[in-house]
Task: structure prediction
Amino acid sequence: PVSRLTSGPGNLDVVSFEKKKSVGTLKPVIMSGGPAVRVSIESACEKQVQEVSLDGIETYVQPLSMSQNLAKLAQRIDFGQGSDSEEEGGDGTSREQEWGKQEPEEDEATVKFQPSLWPWDSVRNNLRSALTEMCVLYDVLSVVKEKKYMTLDPVSQELTGKTPQVFQLISKKKSLATAAQMLLKGADKLSKSVAENQENRRQRDFNSELLRLRSQWKLRKVGDKILGDLSYRSAGSLFPHHGTFEVIKNTDIDLDKKIPEDYCPLDVQIPSDLEGSAYIKVSIQKQAPDIGDLGTVNLFRRQPKAKAGTQPWHVKLEAAQNVLLCKEIFAQLSREAVQIKSQIPHIVVKNQIISQPFPGLQLSISLCHSTGDRKNQRASPEKPKPDDHLYVLEHNLHQLMREFHKQTLSSIVMPHPASAPFGHKRLRLAGPMAYDKAEIASLQQNEGLLEKVIKQAKHIFLRSRTARTIDTLASRIEDPQIQAHWSNINDVYESSVKVLITSQGYEQICKSIQLQLNIGVEQIKVVHRDGRVITLSHQEQELQDFLLSQMSQHQVHAVQQLAKVMGWHVLSFSNHVGLGSVESIGNASAITVASSNGEYSISVRNGPESGCKVMVQFPRNRCKDLPKSDVIQDNKWNHLRGPHKEVHWSKMEGRNFVYKMELLMAALTPCP
Result:
């Protein structure tokens, strides 16, 4: 049912219409007290012809559906026009005056145009306007009551030639501009929220990084700044550098751009003199011809790459702390080099300390500090020199510095008072427990950092030169062979090596020469197999001469051991022969062996310089060159050995000396 307003003869009545399904008629029901009037409204049966084809077929315009008709009517509504109810609520008196003025005008119009109008024309007009107003009122009430938005379905209508395309483009432009403005507002809100989230996240990341930094480094807050400590004062350092760094917030990144993966919200600002990288270079070189050749050492080496996952502030702080420690070590060494009084004074030139551990050699300790400036690196066009840096001494310097810090922290018991009054037992025991002058002097006699490093450098140089001497002899002399077994467990001031002199193929029977070399700071102690101890100086020639004499004695000892195996008898043996030419290196050794039946004898004399000389003595009855003697007539005297004959040792077959001697003994041994 649809309600509409209708006008009667003297009043307004409310009429309700009901639409039947079969016939498009409306039955009015008068809601007032008057009699009901039936009004029949029928739609035109004929449809509007749209097109007539050539074959005479007519194409009709399809009637609008109820939704399309409702949308068409809704387009005609002017929502900007005020309703009558609002006007009546504003001013009732003025409204009555207007109605009073309009009534005579309407009466005049009715009187004037009454003859030409259709009798039901006014009723039709009133019904139509009432129907429109009630529909609008019903729609407004339904929207307010149901709290829903009004949706309009699009109506497909053919464009008429009367509507210009300009107005359509303008309407589309306005609608697009409105939609774009709404989208821009939404985008601004989203960007602001994202920026706020990133700012909050960066603040949270900064706090977490600051907490991690605090767990590894000492931090304190001074005013509105966060300061940290790089120095080793808490570990016992006395270096005057403050070593303070500042923690700042990293604001270099643009929030609008993509944040890189290695971004860190926290950054540290270190002092300018601690920037870059530094290390202590320790090397042993030949003595420079002129002191003017020494200068600032400007050597740089590549920094190791940081581990994956390491924060940039951690790498920067570690490098700065390493620079600070290197500067402290060099300052301590420079102070000791000036204070220590030695036979050969130490030299401190710029960032280099020169000392002379052995004649002709110099120990160079340099502070190499790279600030990262490429200009300084380009300014040195020198060719790269071989790396003579002693990494062991650099590591030992760091360890010695940490031991020095530990000693500073450790509390040393001070001397007790020499006397104390009667009273507490602890005070009475202070007198007997007091230190004397010798004990106090022993406490004060501590080696400095420079002295320890010089001693370690002497030991390292002496050990390397010993190894080089042994390797040189082993490569130059093939027979006998010399082997060196270095001990893995050594001290910073002492190392040991076991030297074996053997012959190839006869290692089991020729093991008489076994030496233990204890390499110290300035001398080498040689311990023989029988317990004898020989002390050698740091001179390389002494060690070389000693090893050559031992290799010479090894050949004679090898003949002695071989004679026992072959069944020969040792007649004489001497490590130091006083006959013959004098050797410039050590002494010659000799041995004489005889065959099992005593007919043949072999005499061997071996010297470090003269070499090997072998003599064979034959029986008299086999010497055809001997003249017959009238004095010796008995045949038993013919079994005595005659004169010696030298063997051409270089023409003997065999790979080494012992093998040739074995062949010679086998040739002279009588058959059973």
Q: What stands out?
A: The chain has a mean pLDDT of 76. The first strand starts at residue 2 and ends at 7.
